[in-house]
């Protein structure tokens, strides 16, 4: 039984296999979930993740069941272990968006059914796969491409670095002090062979980039820090002026976005933006992961 809690749960060959499945037309995939259920449990809101997972499940013949934590009460109404074992009675797998990554590890550790991370405080692997698909469509190969992330070294940044970095891209980060990857996180990324460098000035890393990526300054669950974060991230808004030294760079954002905070409207709504193919790729990535988890091991 396999789980996907972070991109480095996959070997490089497996990562490539998932991406290959994601790019395959639906009609060429076996309906590996025919007659089976998939539990989609959310402790936080979602637009892209819920919808892409539901439709991918249907495309593979399965039946998605959306569950909010208001109803399930993970660790309040019932222990995580009892919830996991219960859902395992009905479903082929549990896909969950949680606050604590450790909760996913506990679920997976029970070995009841495959567990897929739909975003935790540490990682967003389904997004990282969609990001890789988006950039692969841009250039065919990510080898030696420079992907620069500006903003908060968060869940999205880590999965982006692991997915695109392992496919050969050079990962550069500009994050304010206090909002950078700690040495253990950098070690984990480098341990997979990724070329990653981190600084605190966008002007040092953006020029010459092939892609520039940003995400919200305040992630879900951090709302009480929003004011403090707005101050810390001053100067980190991705604008046309910031991108002047990277004239050919495409722009990515996992969405939801806050125009005027982490990105200017002129960039996210402008010609270099790839955010809509990127959002669509969430569906293809979801289908690739499920096809791989439930049997299509190419
Ligand atoms: N990018 C992403 O995960 O979007 P949602 O929060 O809407 O699912
Ligand atoms: N970093 C953001 C991503 C949302 C898709 C969050 O965790 O809220």
Task: Describe this protein's structure.
The protein starts with 11 loop residues before the first helix and ends in a 5-residue tail after the last helix. The protein is of the alpha/beta class and 298 residues long. The protein contains twelve helices and nine strands. It has helices at residues 12-23, 48-59, 69-72, 80-90, 101-109, 125-139, 155-166, 183-191, 202-205, 226-232, 265-268, 275-293, and strands spanning 37-42, 63-68, 91-97, 115-117, 146-150, 170-174, 195-199, 211-214, 250-253. The longest helix is centred in the last third of the chain and has 19 residues, at 275-293. Helix 1 (12-23) crosses helix 12 (275-293), helix 2 (48-59) crosses helix 12 (275-293) and helix 6 (125-139) crosses helix 12 (275-293). It is globular and about 55 Å long. Helix 7 links the parallel strand 5 and strand 6 (170-174). It has a five-stranded parallel β-sheet with strand order 7-6-5-8-9. The model has no long low-confidence stretch (mean pLDDT 98). The protein is 40% helix and 15% strand. Residues 46-49, 119, 127, 254-256 line the site of phosphoric acid mono(formamide)ester.
Task: Give me a quick take on this structure.
The protein contains 12 helices and 9 strands. The chain has helices spanning 12-23, 48-59, 69-72, 80-90, 101-109, 125-139, 155-166, 183-191, 202-205, 226-232, 265-268, 275-293, and strands at 37-42, 63-68, 91-97, 115-117, 146-150, 170-174, 195-199, 211-214, 250-253.
| Spans of at least 5 consecutive residues with low confidence | none
Described by strand count, sense and barrel closure, the largest sheet is: 5 strands, parallel
Q: In total, how many beta strands?
A: 9
Overall spatial form: globular
The portion of residues assigned to helices is 25-40%
Which ligands, by name, code or SMILES, are bound? phosphoric acid mono(formamide)ester, norvaline
Mean pLDDT equals 98
The fraction of residues in strands falls at: 15-25%
Q: Could you give the order of strands across the largest sheet? A: 7-6-5-8-9
Our measurement of the CA-to-CA distance between the termini, rounded to an integer number of angstroms, reads: 16 Å
**What is the string of SSEs from the N terminus onward?**
HEHEHHEHEHEHEHEHEHEHH
Give the number of helices. Answer: 12
Q: What class, by secondary structure content?
A: alpha/beta
């Amino acid at each position: 039984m396999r789980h996907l809690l972070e991109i480095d749960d996959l070997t490089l060959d497996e990562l490539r296999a998932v991406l290959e499945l994601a790019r395959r037309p639906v009609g060429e995939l076996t309906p590996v979930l025919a007659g089976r259920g998939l539990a989609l449990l959310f402790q936080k809101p979602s637009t892209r993740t819920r919808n892409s997972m539901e439709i991918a499940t249907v495309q593979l013949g399965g039946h998605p069941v959306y569950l909010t934590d208001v109803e399930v009460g993970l660790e309040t109404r019932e222990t995580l272990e009892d919830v996991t074992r219960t859902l395992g009675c009905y479903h082929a797998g549990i896909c969950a968006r949680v606050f604590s990554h450790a909760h996913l590890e506990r679920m997976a550790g029970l070995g009841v059914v495959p567990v897929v991370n739909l975003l935790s405080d540490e990682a967003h692997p389904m997004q990282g796969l969609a990001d890789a698909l988006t950039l692969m469509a841009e250039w065919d190969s990510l080898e030696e491409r420079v992907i620069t992330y500006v903003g908060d070294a968060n869940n999205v940044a880590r999965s982006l670095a692991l997915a695109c970095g392992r496919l050969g891209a050079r990962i550069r980060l500009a994050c304010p002090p206090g909002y950078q990857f700690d040495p253990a996180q950098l070690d984990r990324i480098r341990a997979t062979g990724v070329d990653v460098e981190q600084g605190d000035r966008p002007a040092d890393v953006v020029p010459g980039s092939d892609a520039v990526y940003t995400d919200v300054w305040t992630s879900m669950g951090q709302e009480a820090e929003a004011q403090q974060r707005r101050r810390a991230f001053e100067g980190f808004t991705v604008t046309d002026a910031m991108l002047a030294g990277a004239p050919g760079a495409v722009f990515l954002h996992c969405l939801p976005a806050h125009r005027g905070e982490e990105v200017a409207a002129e960039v996210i709504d402008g010609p270099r933006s790839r955010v809509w193919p990127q959002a669509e790729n969430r569906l293809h990535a979801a289908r690739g992961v499920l096809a791989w988890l439930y049997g299509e091991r190419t």
